[in-house]
C-alpha cells in the first residue's frame, strides 16, 4: 500500500524538497509513498486571486481565508485520510502519533503562512492542528516536511533493518543510549569497556541504564512521564 501525502500550500515548489533525496527520495521513486502538492491560490475566486485578508478585530498580519482553503481541501480526493493543519497552536507532534499516521493510508496536510488560518476552517472540516515544537516558523511547509519525514522512515522497506521500535528514542519513553564506533581510542577517549565484552546481556543492561541516566538529566519531563507510567503499570516495573 502506498502512503499518500497531499500538501496544500502557497509554495508547492517547496515539495518534495529534501524528501526527494536519500531514503525518502528513493522510497518516493519506488512508490512506497506518493506526493501531491496543491496550490491553494488556484482556488481563489476574486480577480486578484487573494487567499488572505486582514484579521477581524484588527492587529498585525493577514489571515488565510476559510472559504478559499476549504475549496482547495474539498478538491482533494481525501479517501478517509486524516487532515492535519501545521500550526504552532496545534497539539505537539509525538512519535506515537507519527506511528499511527504511518500505519494509515496517508495524510492531507495544510500549510499556513502569515498569521494563520481562519479558525472556522478547522471546526467546519474536522481538521487536527499539529505543532512540531514551541517555536514559530515562517510557514507550515517545513513542519509538513518534518512530519512526512518522520512517517516515511517508518514505512515498510524504507529503512534497511526494521527497528524493533523499542530501542529507538521516544518509543520506550526514554532517550536512546549513546553510540560508539571505531577507532577504539580517539583524542585520548576510549569506548566503554562493556561494549567490547561480547556479553549481550551485560551490554543491554548498560544501555538501558545509560538511557535512564541521560533521560533523567536531559529530559526531566520525559523521565517523569516514564516513571509515572512505570508506577501505574506494575508489569513494567523492574
Ligand atoms: N507553522 C509555524 N510554526 C509552526 C510550528 N512550530 N509547528 C507547526 N507548524 C508551524
UniProtKB/TrEMBL annotation:
HAMAP family: TrmD. Residues 6-224 form the tRNA methyltransferase TRMD/TRM10-type domain. PANTHER family: TRNA (GUANINE-N(1)-)-METHYLTRANSFERASE. Its EC number is 2.1.1.228. The gene is trmD. Belongs to the RNA methyltransferase TrmD family. This is tRNA (guanine-N(1)-)-methyltransferase. InterPro entries: Alpha/beta_knot_MTases, tRNA_m1G_MeTrfase_C_sf, tRNA_m1G_MeTrfase_TrmD, tRNA_m1G_MTases_N, tRNA_MeTrfase_TRMD/TRM10. One of its GO terms (biological process) is tRNA N1-guanine methylation. It is found in: Cytoplasm. Homodimer. The keyword Repeat does not apply. It is an enzyme of class 2 (transferase). Its main location: cytoplasm. It catalyses: guanosine(37) in tRNA + S-adenosyl-L-methionine = N(1)-methylguanosine(37) in tRNA + S-adenosyl-L-homocysteine + H(+). It holds the Pfam family tRNA_m1G_MT. S-adenosyl-L-methionine binds at residues 112, 132-137. Keywords: Cytoplasm, Methyltransferase, S-adenosyl-L-methionine, Transferase, tRNA processing.
Amino acid at each position: 500500500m502506498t502512503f499518500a501525502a497531499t500538501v496544500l500550500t502557497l509554495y508547492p515548489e517547496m515539495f518534495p524538497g529534501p524528501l526527494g533525496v536519500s531514503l525518502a527520495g528513493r522510497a518516493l521513486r519506488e512508490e512506497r509513498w506518493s506526493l501531491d502538492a496543491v496550490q491553494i491560490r488556484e482556488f481563489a475566486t476574486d480577480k486578484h486571486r487573494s487567499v488572505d485578508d486582514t484579521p477581524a478585530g484588527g492587529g498585525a498580519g493577514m489571515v488565510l481565508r476559510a472559504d478559499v482553503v476549504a475549496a482547495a481541501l474539498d478538491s482533494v480526493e481525501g479517501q478517509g485520510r486524516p487532515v492535519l493543519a501545521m500550526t504552532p497552536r496545534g497539539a505537539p507532534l509525538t512519535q506515537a502519533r507519527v506511528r499511527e499516521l504511518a500505519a494509515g493510508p496517508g495524510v492531507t496536510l495544510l500549510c499556513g503562512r502569515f498569521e494563520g488560518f481562519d479558525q472556522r476552517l478547522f471546526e467546519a472540516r474536522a481538521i487536527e492542528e499539529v505543532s512540531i515544537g514551541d517555536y514559530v516558523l515562517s510557514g507550515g511547509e517545513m513542519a509538513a516536511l518534518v512530519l512526512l519525514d518522520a512517517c516515511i522512515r517508518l514505512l515498510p522497506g524504507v529503512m534497511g533493518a526494521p527497528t524493533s521500535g523499542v530501542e529507538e528514542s521516544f518509543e520506550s519513553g526514554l532517550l536512546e543510549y549513546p553510540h560508539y564506533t571505531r577507532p577504539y581510542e580517539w583524542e585520548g577517549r576510549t569506548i566503554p569497556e562493556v561494549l567490547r565484552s561480547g556479553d549481550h546481556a551485560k551490554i543491554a543492561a548498560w544501555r538501558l541504564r545509560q538511557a535512564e541516566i541521560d533521560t533523567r538529566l536531559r529530559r526531566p519531563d520525559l523521565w517523569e512521564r516514564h516513571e509515572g507510567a512505570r508506577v501505574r503499570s506494575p508489569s513494567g516495573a523492574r
